[in-house]
UniProtKB/TrEMBL annotation:
Domain of life: Bacteria
Protein name: GNAT family N-acetyltransferase
GO molecular-function term, one example from the UniProt record: N-acetyltransferase activity
Residue intervals of the N-acetyltransferase domain: 1-157
Lineage: Bacteria, Pseudomonadati, Bacteroidota, Cytophagia, Cytophagales
Keywords: Acyltransferase, Transferase
CDD domains: NAT_SF
Pfam families per UniProt: Acetyltransf_1
Protein family: Belongs to the acetyltransferase family.
Length: 158
């Protein structure tokens, strides 16, 4: 197993893994991203995200960790881990931990003050992993909020 930085030609497989995650998270119809959008957003003049892939000699890309930087008014530059995805047939082999550790190394190398991510409240194996392996703090106090592009346009345009 090899962990390496993702490249443009990895994007079709990356999007397949993203869809697999959406299926796992019981939201199969929520993925609207495209390879073309990811190419523009990740490999354009001002990349918005980076990613690492886990590559198996026989099976190709079997895992993905996608991250970006955010800025906290309280903490400064932070690494944001958007998703770690390991294809179902390769789970339980340490691939997720290897990807997680690689993103941590990237955060350290780029002088981040810490790393944040989200986990679904019903994903007990992941919650236990983050607490036991990393001593992570899980904050039940904050509520996630979002609005869609359509909602943004409607609000601004009346």
């Amino acid at each position: 197993m090899k962990i390496r930085e993702g490249i443009k030609s990895d994007l079709p497989r990356a999007l397949e893994l993203i869809q697999e995650l959406a299926d796992f998270e019981r939201a199969p119809d929520e993925v609207t991203n495209t390879v073309e959008a990811m190419e523009q957003d990740g490999f354009g003049p001002e990349p918005l995200f980076g990613f690492y892939v886990a590559e198996d000699v026989q099976d190709g890309i079997v895992g993905l960790a996608l991250y970006y930087y955010r800025y906290s008014t309280w903490k400064g530059k932070r690494m944001y881990l958007e998703d770690i995805i390991v294809t179902e047939s390769h789970r339980g082999k340490g691939i997720g931990k290897a990807l997680f550790d690689q993103v941590i190394r990237q955060g350290i190398a780029t002088q981040c003050s810490g790393m944040v991510w989200q986990v679904l409240d019903w994903n007990e194996p992941a919650i236990q992993f983050y607490r036991e392996v990393y001593g992570a703090s899980l904050d039940g106090e904050w509520i996630n909020c979002s609005i869609s592009r359509e909602q943004m346009i409607k609000k601004i345009n009346g």
